Amino acid sequence: MIRLPRIGVAVQALVLCALPLPAAADDAAHVTDRMSLEAFVKDARAEVLAADPADRDALYDFADMTFRPMGAWRDGPIYVYILLTDGTVVFHGGDQSLEGVSLWDRRDLNDTLYAQELVAAARRGGGFVTYWFDNPDVADDDTVGSPKVSYVADLLLVDGVDYLIGSGIYPGADPEVTAREVESSMSNSVLQAFVEGARDATEILDAMDDDVAYNFFDTQFRPAGDWRHRSIYVFVLTDDGVIFFNGGNESLEGQNLWDDEDLNGTLFVQELISEAQMGGGFVEYYFDNPDVQGDEDDGSLKTSFATLVSNPSGTNWIIGSGYYHATNTPFAPPLAYLILAALLAGAGFLRRRQR
C-alpha cells in the first residue's frame, strides 16, 4: 500500500515513538487456545482505542510500531491483522505483502470465504472463524495453507470508518508433548498427554466436512516431526471400527477392524472404542510395528491411549496413539532377561576358571 507523507501523521508518529510500547495482558507467546486468543485480540483492540488514531494513516503507523515487532504482540505464527469491512488488508503483522490486498473473494481449500466470515463475525460483536491460511512458520504451505482459528473483535471506528482487528492460532502446530518424547519415555502419562494434545488440535474441525478433516489429519499428523516419530503416530477410528486415518500405515485406512483379534484374542479395536467412550483409557495388545520387519502376522506388544473427538457430521471419532514395548515380537525374550542371562553365564564362566 502506497501512502503519501503528511505532516499530521509524522507528528503523531513522533509522539507515539516517545511513549513506551504497550504490553499485552495475554502476550503472543502465551496465545495457545481460544480463550487466550480472544483475550489477546481484545487487548489489541483496547490498545488501538487508547491510542485514538485520527485516521487510517495514523492507525497504520500505530499498528506498524506496536504490533509488527517480535515481542508482546508478535511471536512466531501469532500476529495481529487489521481489515476494512470490504476485506482489504490494512495491516498484517505476519505478511506485509498482503497489505492493500482485498481478500473478499478468496476461498480456502474448504471453499470458505474467510474474509467475509471474519467481517460477519466482527459485525456480530466478535467471534471465531475457522479456515486454512498460510502459516509463516510452515514451509511449503503457501498454496494450501494450514488450519487456523481466528478471533476478530467488535468493529473499531476510526475517522468514521469501520475496521476489524483480529489474530489467529494454528492448532497442532506446536504440541506440548511430542512423538519423540512418547518414544523416549514409554510412559502412559506422557502418551495420554500426547493424545489429548492431538484431540485438542482438532478443534478447528467443527466447521469442516470429512474430506477436509482427513486433509487436516494428513497434513498435521502424517509428516515426520512433532506428531510422528518412527513407530509413534496418531490414528483415528470411527465408532464402528473403521480406520479413518493411520499415521503409520496409510494402507489400513478404510478397513473395518471391529472383529479383528490379536494373538491373545484381544478385540483391540472394540476395547479402544470402549475406553474412549468412557472418557479415555489404555489398551494393551499386539499390533504391527512399522519399524519392525517380520512382525506383520503376530504384531509387537503395544500400549495405546484413546479418547473421543467430535467430528463435523455429529458422530464421534476415536483418536489415539501408542508406543511399542521394548520386546519387538511376542516370541523375543525381554531385554532384561537377555542381560540377566548374559550375567549368569559370565558368572558361571568365572567360577569354572577359578576351579
Please tell me about this protein's structure.
The chain is of the alpha+beta class. It folds into 2 domains: 163 residues, PAS domain (Beta-Lactamase, 2-Layer Sandwich), CATH 3.30.450; 146 residues, Beta-Lactamase (2-Layer Sandwich), CATH 3.30.450.20. Helices cover 32% and strands 21% of the residues. The strands form 2 sheets. Strands 1, 2, 3, 4, 5 and 6 form a 6-stranded antiparallel sheet that branches. A 5-stranded antiparallel sheet has the order 8-7-11-10-9. A hairpin with a 5-residue loop joins strand 10 and strand 11. Helix 1 packs parallel to helix 3. The longest helix has 20 residues. It is elongated, with a radius of gyration of 26 Å. The termini are far apart. The N terminus is likely disordered.
Distance between the first and last residues' Cα: 92 Å
CATH architecture of the largest domain: 2-Layer Sandwich
User: What series of H and E elements makes up the topology?
Assistant: HHHEEHEEEEHHHEEHEEEH
Can you tell me the number of structural domains? 2
Query: Main β-sheet, in a few words?
Result: 6 strands, antiparallel
Per CATH, the class of the largest domain reads: Alpha Beta
Unreliable segments of 5+ consecutive residues: 1-25, 328-337
The name of the CATH superfamily of the largest domain reads: PAS domain
Strand content: 15-25%
Rg from Cα: 26 Å
Give the total of beta strands.
11
Can you tell me the overall shape?
elongated
Category from helices, strands and their pairing: alpha+beta
Task: Kindly report the CATH topology of the largest domain.
Answer: Beta-Lactamase
Helix content: 25-40%
Mean pLDDT: 85
Put simply, the count of helices is 9
